[in-house]
Amino acid sequence: xxxxxxxxxxxxxxxxxxxxxxxxxxxxxxxxxxxxxxxxxxxxxxxxxxxxxxxxxxxxxxxxxxxxxxxxxxxxxxxxxxxxxxxxxxxxxxxxxxxxxxxxxxxxxxxxxxxxxxxxxxxxxxxxxxxxxxxxxxxxxxxxxxxxxxxxxxxxxxxxxxxxxxxxxxxxxxxxxxxxxxxxxxxxxxxxxxxxxxxxxxxxxxxxxxxxxxxxxxxxxxxxxxxxxxxxxxxxxxxxxxxxxxxxxxxxxxxxxxxxxxxxxxxxxxxxxxxxxxxxxxxxxxxxxxxxxxxxxxxxxxxxxxxxxxxxxxxxxxxxxxxxxxxxxxxxxxxxxxxxxxxxxxxxxxxxxxxxxxxxxxxxxxxxxxxxxxxxxxxxxxxxxxxxxxxxxxxxxxxxxxxxxxxxxxxxxxx
Length: 415
Hints:
Mean pLDDT: 87
Radius of gyration: 23 Å
CATH superfamily of the largest domain: 3-Deoxy-D-manno-octulosonic-acid transferase, N-terminal domain
Order of helices and strands: HEHEHEHEEEHEHEHHEHHEHEHEHEHHH
Number of domains: 2
CATH class of the largest domain: Alpha Beta
Low-confidence stretches: 1-8, 29-34, 36-40
CATH topology of the largest domain: Rossmann fold
Distance between the termini: 59 Å
Helix content: 40-55%
């Protein structure tokens, strides 16, 4: 007779096991410190030499564009950094082979990675992964400071519920994110986190690449329409699916569909069905590049929903966008707690044209109008000024902050 454990129970058992392991590890570390204290005649033990100064955790290789500029700058400054990744093919692993101060390690996927993180011994952990101390990833008792850095200029409230509640500090890109955070803290009676408006490292890097990159046009001469949806029940592919792709193909334009990376795991069956139904040809592509710079630079217009990539496109490449509300529901997100329209949906009507349920038969005309209407250009400039602070200075600001905090924490431990 085989024993079946459902996924929910398995997840709970894993959390309990990791909790027990964490308590044991913390107890042993504390006992060792006490023994050293007694052996030193009551003098304060020296700084823990095994404590890592700065750890960067990335749950997926797609976030290397956020962390690469930071690693490069900290390498230049001679600051030791340990980069932990849950992707076995993360570009960071290759990068760190030629560095002196930055090391990189694949720590396993899923629960295996979290089991390592939950007993981490470090001064600072920097990550763009939400959900700390909510699911399997628990705060380690021997980490002094957890820092969250955003990977998009839109809403911080569009993380799944409690996404950043248990971080100590946040590195943000716009005032709207500060306002959302403070409102959520007040509603949940949480202590205020330290917040720094640093900008966005990957957008700075993307802009620099664009400044040195010749504009690439579609070889056929046809406009290139990029469909780049988010994932989940409110995403375009889930909501509209095949009929929407049919309408795109009818435009006669070159169509590129770039699903959200999370769709390949969370919505695999839906994607597999669509990719089989719509094979690639000279005017239709599926794009899965880890680095989205090439396809963003090639596209003449983007169609999306509430995905953060829509901001990357309009802020850096300054090209027209269209968006589908697709019956967006705030239910799973932190935005549910806020009695307001999410920032993304507040600004999208200003910068792009909405696609509603009567798109059938009208999509080509809507695309043509959006590509040629000059009113959206000034709106894009306005959003750029509010959502993307400290343009060009994000990497320096992030590294300055990390090094300053490391100094403060080291001095506190000496007292």
